[in-house]
Amino acid sequence: MSKEPRKHLEKGEDPAWKSQTKLLHSGEDPSQYFGAAVPPIVQTSLFAFEDYEALDEAFGDREHHFIYTRGQNPTIDLTAAKIAALENGEAARLFSSGMAAISSTILSQVSQGDHIVCVKSAYGPTMKFLRNWLTRFGVETTFVDGTDPAEFEKAVKPNTRLFYVESPSSLVFEMQDLRAVSAIAKEHGIVTMIDNSWATPIFQKPLDLGIDLVVHSATKYLAGHSDVVAGVCVGGKELVSKIAANEHVLLGGITGPFEAWLLLRGLRTLDVRLERHQKNALKVAAYLEAHPKIKRVYYPGLKSHPQYELGRRQMSGSSGLMSMMIDCDLPGVRRFVDSLRVFRRGVSWGGFESLAYAPIISMAREQPEEVWRAAGVEPGLIRISVGLEDVEDIIADLDAALARV
Ligand SMILES: *Cc1c(COP(=O)(O)O)cnc(C)c1O
């Protein structure tokens, strides 16, 4: 295999394939592995060569040879190629977690003295990385209200290199106008990057809207079975090759072949899972919105969402994660959380199972109060990941728990 260039990545694919066909067939060439219906897990750290010349040749074209798994591995590359195809990107790299993908991709774009503009509703650890860690190396970030594209324009400085967005965000589900934000960035020669974990490429393809780089916590919907932690970065060949040759291989936050294979297995059903997540979530959101003890539901699929129209313009659906503000005191919120029977209590989301979480629990410990208040967090805010269970059981569970607040 070491002498074979990665033929399977280029063979027989039609870029016009729709999502579910890509999920099943993109990146795959069974003739490379005995016709097996499922690609093998190439669980190896290195690839050996027949002679000096073959090794020499491989080093002459590292991108197309398997040498060492920190750089290239057939299972990992196949999974990455499938995600690239799904996002309408040219290339992708897998990482050991969403945060490894996010931090490595941000680092690929900035040097000492540079400036970043980021939405203030971004994922907590992403903001912590920008606010507390990157500042140690002289990279400053301005956090803006991403619901207004003009805020990005206003925040631009001569040294701004990167716009970082997360649309929708995963706590209060704010959206950014991706076409407008990427147009502003292009005028200033600024690279744009999005965390697309919530919508997934099934419902939103940011590269088609002008965004340069897409990152995911593949731990969530892409893998979908709550059994793997992984991340991915997708984009054009030039940007991704640079990341592959530098941050990916030098910081080494790579995923292993087995995790890549689990992700590949999860991806097979992404489209059908999301269809069910969406169907359940729309019913749950409508139920919650009508409930007298719920002050507000945060869900882009609801017509009452302040940016519903924007969502319809740039997304083709909505997934299963939402938040609600319960009209009660903290003891009431605790009773609600503790009364749930179908929902499990826990962080993360995007797996098969329904989950509930009170963001205040982690935010109050990790961030100063003004930061989590600015991110829209209050003690009554509960985030739920609507799973694949029968929706009648999910709603009955919420109904019984709400009766106890
Ligand atoms: C979970 C999450 C991440 C981080 O992903 P990990 O795989 O846990 O590192 C990034 N962004 C969002 C929106 C997330 O929910």
Strand content: 5-15%
Instruction: Give the number of DSSP strands.
Output: 12
Distance between the first and last residues' Cα: 61 Å
Low-confidence stretches: 1-9
State the secondary-structure class.
alpha/beta
Outline type: globular
- How can the largest sheet be summarized? 7 strands, mixed
The hetero compounds bound to this protein are:
pyridoxal-5'-phosphate
Radius of gyration: 22 Å
- Give the helix proportion (percent range): 25-40%
Describe this structure in words.
The protein is of the alpha/beta class. The chain is built from 16 helices and twelve strands. Strands 1-7-6-5-4-2-3 form a seven-stranded mixed beta sheet, with helices on both faces. Strands 8-9-12-11-10 form a five-stranded mixed beta sheet, with helices on one face. Strand 2 (115-119), helix 5 (124-133) and strand 3 (140-144) form a beta-alpha-beta unit. The protein is globular. The N and C termini lie far apart (61 Å). Mean pLDDT is 94; it is low at 1-9.
